[in-house]
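Incident review: delayed structure delivery

Summary: a single-chain prediction request sat in the queue longer than the usual turnaround. Root cause was a stuck worker, restarted by the on-call engineer. No data loss occurred. The affected request and its eventual output are reproduced below so the record is complete for anyone auditing the incident later.

Affected input:
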Amino acid sequence: MKRRSAVKQIAFMIGGSLWLPSCLPESEKTASSVITDGHEEILSDLVEWLIPETDIPGARELGVHHFVLKMLTDCHDEKTQQQCAMDLGKIAAHAKEKGGDSWEKLSWSEKEKVFGSLVTPENPDQQLESFPVIKRRAIQGFMSSEYILNNVFVYEMAPGRYDGYFPV
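Output delivered after worker restart:
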């Protein structure tokens, strides 16, 4: 056995073992240190309230809340993440004040009332400060989802293709 080929093979094995974890796919669920599973359910309902299902799928069906969580975790500072978590907790607390046991047990019409009262409140102290961030990220995730790009906008990877029969 030649020493150079052995050293080269060992270097490739070490380099491959260090590089391999970055190639593994991430799970669909985003690990956030701030937002809990109960808050994720509220966020899912909030983005569904913003972009409901019509003749095209709604935000929940397209998984937009996973996109919002990923963007909050990766692209926003710790202060914004904390504010979003506090606002999602405020939604849960407001739902309990309205007489609900937990968020999951509320009907959809009651959830809509809670969202409506916190987005445009009579009392400015109850307003959700992170709502513009969540709304912007929900719209961004919805508009860039695979379903919307392929079925609504008919996405073309290379627009303006050559047409040989075009009259000059």
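Verification: The two ends are 68 Å apart (CA to CA).
Action items: add queue-age alerting; document worker restart procedure.
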